[in-house]
Each structure stands twice: as structure tokens, then as C-alpha cells.
């Protein structure tokens, strides 16, 4: 039997997948230490980020903590605006609160849309002001083809980014806030009786996987920014627009493996960096791949079976209550599940 750490790589070869399958969206692979680009495909084509938006939300929250505006123990409140956000969410009643630390766990693990707005309001005073900060920070980081419209990535026609811009953002998170690295590799979070698991399928199936974030809406397909570290070297892969969560994980694993196996000889040819790689003259604007995505919520896939108790017809209920318990991934072992 194959070890869990090799399953995704083996799946890539068994399926005959290349780094650029016929239906693939934009992708980019780079070395986090120096930004050297080891693979790029349509890196400047605009795409809907979906919940990869939350990488920026976390980045700004980390910054607010550094500046002393918040602490991990600060209680933040669920406003009416936050409560009205669509799934996926924690579902706190208006007026309820949680700590910033719990909120970051819910943001990263569950990809909670209501919590993203709670953090936005805590950092900037209002969701609108936070979005302005997101766009100002994107400009500062050189994310020239990115525009944010909300803090969580829920569908908005004007919310767009590129693989290169997401790579710049991810590099900034890793560089500027290494003290929060463990948050990107957390496996699960327990809220009351609810046990919520990460959507990042690489964490349990790829050696060295340690972050960062998945995302999905019907127009974008299944996206991921995936990182892995081996022998002190961190690779980060950006994968956009896969039709299923499984294909997203396999393509990201294939890219990461390509990076670990080829980085030494590619260094001999002085590959471009995120900053020096030329902008594609034919870079395209945003598109939708709703027609090829396979998902029940998009009307193109089967609904997942609902767990039931032994008593026929009695559904298992889940409660959304604090306190929260978190389990971080150990540095020596990969971890998690999949959206």
C-alpha cells in the first residue's frame, strides 16, 4: 500500500496528468526563499480568487496584531452584516463574540465567510474600510491585476486576481509573519460538538505539506495556494480553475513535486522571479468555468450523502457552540482533508 505522503503524486502519474492538463486554469510554482519561478502557465490571466481572498484577510489581521490594534485574545463581535454572509460560515448569532485566535482558525480551516467580515470590522472599523485596506495593500505588494470587493471571496464580478498576484501575496505572508506559520497547517477545529476539518487535501497526502488555503465558487472552480517544505526549502504552488477538489490537489502535488525534483538544475539557468518574469502581452480578463465544474452547488454534480444515525431517518445534528479547541500539524508529518 502507498504511504499517504505519496498518494497524490502517484495519482498524478497514474492518471497521466502533465503539469498542464488540457482543461487547466492558470498555475504558478515558485521557491518561497527567493521568488524564483519554476513553472508558470497563464500567470497573468485574471481569475476569481474565491476563498483565496482570505489569505489577504489573514495578512491584514496579522498586521493589526503587530501594530497593537488587536491581540489573539481580543473578543470580536458578530454584526448583522457578518451574520448575513452566505455559507460556508460558523453561524454565530448577532452580538455573539469569539477571540481573534478562534476567528483566524475558523477563517483558515472552515473558510468561514461570516468570520471574515467579523475580522474585517475589527481591523478597520467597517467592512468597506477593510476592503479599501485590502486594495491598498495589494497595490503595495505589486498585485497589479488584482481587485478586491469583499473580505471573504463570495461571488462578486469585480473581485479578480491572477496566479502571479496570489504568489506575491503568499510570499508576503510567509516572509512577513512566520510566527503564524502553524495556523496555515492546522488540521481541524472543534466548535462545541462540531469537528471542522481543513479543505486542503494535500495536508494528509503530500510529504512536507504545510499550508496555505483553498477556495471555491462556481465561476472560479477549485483553487488552491499550496505550500510544502522539505530539507528547509519551501515551495509554493498556485493552482486555479480545476473542475473538482481532487483534481486541484493532484495538480498542486504534481507542481510541488516538480519543484523539489528540478530546482537544483533549473537554478543553473537563472530562472525569472515573480518580479522579473515578463507580463504576458496576451493576458486575458476574468472568465467563468462554471460549465465544467463538477459540484452539487453549481448544479453539475451529485449531492454528498448526509450522515444518518442508526435510527432510520434521524439526521445527526451538529451544534455551533464555543469553546474552540485546535490541533496544529506537527512539522514532521503531513495532515488534513479536502473541500
Account of the 3D structure:
This protein is of the alpha+beta class. It is built from ten helices and ten strands. The chain has helices at about 5-15, 55-65, 80-85, 100-110, 115-125, 125-140, 165-175, 180-185, 200-205, 245-265, and strands at about 25-30, 35-40, 75, 95-100, 190, 195, 210-215, 220-230, 235-240, 325. Helix 1 packs across helix 10 (about 245-265) and helix 2 (about 55-65) packs parallel to helix 5 (about 115-125). It is globular. The two termini are about 25 Å apart. Residues about 1-5, about 10-15 and about 305-339 have low confidence and may be disordered.
User: Which strand-content bin applies to the residues?
Assistant: 15-25%
**How many helices does DSSP assign?**
10
Mean of pLDDT = 86
CA radius of gyration = 19 Å
Q: Which outline best applies? A: globular
- The structure class reads alpha+beta
What topology, given as strand order, has the largest sheet? 2-1-9-8-7
Describe this protein with a few key phrases.
single chain; 339 residues; 10 strands; disordered N terminus; disordered C terminus
